[in-house]
Amino acid sequence: MSYFSTILGGPLPTLGILSITQAVNIYAGEQLLGAVEKVETQRAWGAERVTDLPSLAGDIPSHKVATSLSFDVNLFLVLGAYLLTMENCLLQLLYPLQPPRLCLGTINVVILVSLNSTVGRTMGKLGRAPAIISVITILGSMGICLVSAYLTPASNDEPPAKTYGYSVPAAISGIAFAVGSQKLLLNVRAELEDVSSSSKVLRYGLVIMFALYGLVICLTPPSPPSFLLDILDAGSISSCLASTCLFIHVAISFSINSQALVRRLVENHNIGWFLCTSLISITILIITLLVPSFASLTSLIGALTSIPLTLTLPIIFGVASAKRTGWHYRLDVSLIVLCVILTVITTLASCWKIIDEWGNVT
């Protein structure tokens, strides 16, 4: 978020974009909750609650393909971002050895196979322990980076980010990736004893998210790095500790998300677990090889999947279930059109950014 703030011109413009995004996010979330409630009332008594967008789209056939495609592509790309993060952690840990890129690629393959074939299938049997460890390690990594930034500023500060024609749309899509909440909203709703409080949870959660991101934006230094660990001196003890904590956090997140993706593909397409795991691993590895930087990948995820999943599809579900007319219907249609246009523009900008980065590399 700090890196995107510098591209957008500082705290004030970024807070403005974040405010608009969160306002539409709340509106889309309310639409989604309305659609979920209507679908659940039409189901048999005692049926399971809706926990994700594809299960909701299953009751609205015309939206099933688009929703499932967006959902699965999002999981693929997010897993790629996790792998890219783990690779950067390894770069920090192995910095004194100066490992070649090919060596890291081999290590990535080992990580993918081990995580998917062992942890991924048994993650549900471990209870809440992985989630607790994940929270502790990410807080530890962030704490180390925060303390090190103030006590021993890194000597490898990045120059100010250059702004190109595609930079602003790509930064906006990066923000969309950061504030995407509808997938989590349905998971949280499924755990609530009183589902009527879902709207309050949505509003309070997004307000707290806005406050935290606003604090981060206001405290942003002039030239923040695009990756968290880059604020630390490579090879230092603090860098190794933070890299280890972040690696553990991302490995757990990777296992949980890969388990969800594999289960969906196995159930929907009758593909064997091992074959499905192997195909996912190869695809994710290709994604990390094609996208040169973490910031570019998050921008692509935000543009291609986060905007549709967080804003566009929830409003479409609301329109399909509520059958509104008049100004409310025109507002919904206008927001859908704007979200589609934003998706196209930011996706093109993110792809352009990736191509330009490859041009600079070569």
TrEMBL record:
Compartments, record wording: Membrane
A family per Pfam: Aa_trans
Topology in membrane: Multi-pass membrane protein
One MF term in the entry's GO annotations: L-amino acid transmembrane transporter activity
Domain called Amino acid transporter transmembrane: residue spans: 64-355
Transmembrane region(s): 131-151, 163-180, 201-222, 234-252, 273-294, 300-321, 333-355
Keyword Transport appears in the UniProt entry: no
Keywords from the named record: Membrane, Transmembrane, Transmembrane helix
GO CC list: membrane
Protein's recorded name: Amino acid transporter transmembrane domain-containing protein
